[in-house]
Amino acid sequence: GVSARQYIEVLEEYILTILETDTFFIYNNIRVYIAILVQEWFTERDINIMDHLPFSPDINPIKNL
What is the Cα–Cα distance from 36 to 8, expressed in whole angstroms? Predict the structure, then answer.
């Protein structure tokens, strides 16, 4: 699996540039996403997140086809 530190490395390398625009960051409640270290990273950068239930088809476009 991916550790919280590895996930933060990905966020810093790829996601920060995307989040500079007016974008929602949506994730489900997988452990690495809700790790305290990751939550603190989002809070320190004033990034708002929108969570939803795991395996929820409500915002997964491929599930609605």
Answer: 12
